[in-house]
Amino acid sequence: NWTMASFVDKEIERIRNVVGPTAQVIGAVSGGVDSTVAAMIMSKAIGDRFHAILVDNGVMRLNECQIVQKTLQHHLGINLTVADAHDLFLGRLKGVTDPEKKRKIIGNTFIEVFEAEGNKIEAQVEQEGRGKIEFLLQGTLYPDVIESISFKGPSATIKTHHNVGGLLDDMKLKVIEPLRELFKDEVRALGAIMGIDDELVWRHPFPGPGIAIRILGEVTEAQVNIVRQADNIYIEEIKKAGLYRKISQAYAALLPIRSVGVMGDKRTYEQVIALRAVETKDFMTADWFEFPYDILKLISSRIINEVPGVNRVVYDVSSKPPATIEWE
Ligand code: XMP
């Protein structure tokens, strides 16, 4: 795509001018398309003077941290540091059941870990006499810009949203936002021409607080493991059925209630997995996705048979509004 290719060249040129010959840049990545495309552009512009940071918050999806690391570092050649803070996050989430409290804990801990990692990188760079960290990369898109200057979408007032890098005002760094004039479909097109895998380019959005807001009630390592496995089966079958791109967002949630079941000739008393899948243009309103029954049947039986601790699967048939896309 000609326009997109020239956009990349112009943006690289602009970034080089803004950053200059010695300054360093940091930015958080999540494995989502926005932060990856932004990081790619930055990396092409200034190479290893850009330092990407991935925070492992313990509530990413199954094997996600390793997958993101492999893709960004090894396939895309981005200078990446992984900050493994899963114990810190899970420790702070212990005993917390209120959705807003979970969101605040994760948001604040994220900033803390990101800043600490930034400081470490800064110390090293300065010691090596390679200049200073002066800029923060953010993958803000045009709709985010509009939302923050003119109005708050309904979900923003209902849930405290936190985004990768979205709350880092106190870092005294100048912000660079290569995607601030683009819509999501344009970012995907950019990603594709820069050689990012289709799998990543078409990835469903994933909330900053991760699966912590998809585990109702307390978030423990055991609960994280259950929902991760169920979600992995769900997404795998959606992809196999060729439905992934038709659905705007799909995930499994874990309901911390128990119901009675039977396995072989034994009574079981286990938790419930709720499957969510929606179609939407803007994520402000959404319709639940009309799955073919045979696909639901397959997914349900795989989850119940393969995920210990689950004996019942339900499908969420609520539209937004009045329900929201996430359960918390
Ligand atoms: P709701 O649940 O409000 O979600 O209907 C709308 C969209 O926003 C995502 N979401 C978040 N994204 N940080 C994010 O970056 C958050 O804290 C957050 N909470 C919800 C949600 O996954 C859906 O795509």
Give your account of this protein's structure.
The structure is a single chain. By secondary structure, this protein is an alpha/beta fold. 44% of the residues lie in helices and 19% in strands. The chain is built from 11 helices and 9 strands. The strands form 2 sheets. A 5-stranded parallel sheet has the order 3-2-1-4-5, with helices on both faces. Helix 1 (2-19) crosses helix 2 and helix 4 (86-93) runs antiparallel to helix 5. The longest helix has 29 residues, at 99-127. The radius of gyration is 21 Å and the shape is globular. It starts with a helix and ends in a 13-residue tail after the last strand. The model has no long low-confidence stretch (mean pLDDT 93). Bound molecules: xanthosine-5'-monophosphate. Xanthosine-5'-monophosphate (XMP) is lined by residues 103, 155, 159, 161-163, 205, 207-209, 249, 283, 320, 324-326. Xanthosine-5'-monophosphate is lined by residues 103, 155, 159, 161-163, 205, 207-209, 249, 283, 320, 324-326. One of its GO terms (cellular component) is cytosol. Keywords: ATP-binding, Glutamine amidotransferase, GMP biosynthesis, Ligase, Nucleotide-binding, Purine biosynthesis. It catalyses: XMP + L-glutamine + ATP + H2O = GMP + L-glutamate + AMP + diphosphate + 2 H(+). Its EC number is 6.3.5.2. ATP binds at residues 30-36.
